[in-house]
Amino acid sequence: MKISYECGPCFLRQAKEAMDLSTDDEMLKMEIMEEIFKFLNDNFKLGANSNSTGSKMHNMIKQKTCCRDPYYREKIEGNEIALKYLPDVKKILEEDDSLENYVKIAIIGNILDFGAFTLDDDIEGVIKESLEKDLVIKDIEEFEESLKTNDKVLYLVDNTGEIVFDKLLLSKIKEYDLDITIAVKSEPILNDACMKEALEAGLDKYGEIVEIGAGTVGYVDSEISEEFREIFNNHKFIISKGMGNYEGLTEINLDDKELFFLLCAKCNTISKDIGVNLHDMLLFKK
Fold this sequence. Notes:
52% of the residues lie in helices and 12% in strands. By secondary structure, the protein is α/β, with parallel strands linked by helices. It folds into 2 domains: 7-65, Helicase, Ruva Protein, domain 3, CATH 1.10.8; 72-285, Uncharacterised protein PF01937, DUF89, domain 3 (Rossmann fold), CATH 3.40.50. The chain has a 7-stranded mixed β-sheet with strand order 1-7-6-5-2-3-4, sandwiched between helices. The two termini are 14 Å apart.
């Protein structure tokens, strides 16, 4: 997806957040912010790729602060809080174990920023409220047809915390007797899931976990490894979680794929691009 004017403030907000998590050195943060302004001045323009621009900015911060994983603590907390609420979510699904409900749960995981919640917050209430909402785009019949007619699927995960809820959908997919390959980032970026977090959440119980060969915001086709490109090319059926992967995958021609996006439209740029309202929950085939 291409940059919109609204991406500018978002880049700066993310830059401040990443720097504050990386270092307490105020002078260093000032120097880095000056470089970010220069970088955006050269690269923030009509037609630029949002994922690639954001990835370069975050990697600049990591390099300058010598902090490989600014969101390390947030990722641990996200998984821990999500795991605490997993039994409650399972009880909800026992009452209605439809495929649509499992899809909704996975999308609700995308809505919740688990790192921002405490154990006192009413996460269960948010989950139940979200389950009562309809998917605004609901290609559930096409999705189930792909589950029935393919023998393998590539599942691109998004954030920590969220991946705990992905486990439930992965368990449902297993009922269709598919071989599942789960793709994670190779290097830390934001609070995206890497191999360590995926293993800690227990995703390896549902399929083989592979790395994409890069640490990018979402999927950036030019940055993935040749090993992952072979895996990607060998899968006809692909499930993409979250906005970052949507931004990247819509930049390339994938007409030969059965590609399904599961996400919540959490920003105006993406909601306008898809043609939905802010905060709508979506399951749709590209």
